[in-house]
Design brief:
With about 110 residues, the chain is mainly beta. The chain contains one helix and eleven strands.
Amino acid sequence: MSVTPLLYSPNIYRRVDWAVEFVLQSNGSAVDLSTSVMTAQAWNEKRTKKYLDMTCTVSDATNGKVQVSMTDTQTTILPDIACWDLKKTSGDLTEYWVTGKLNVFQGYTS
């Protein structure tokens, strides 16, 4: 199966936790994630500097639900714009399901 990744470029704020949940579907049906490993990372655009590994939690494998998150400590180290993606690996098959840029803003409340 060939996947065209979803383009998702969220606005996030430094020094706060961030999380989003995705429901992976193919042809209108949930993708079973029971045997899959999900990974996500943030890099600079030229992919010469990795900023961090995000936490990927499969919350409902049968229904294709996966949560991607970063802690407040992780969001603090991000530059104003970082590239990211969500990758699914199952056996010999590797697919990118989501890709985009993280638009990072400075929060003011301490």
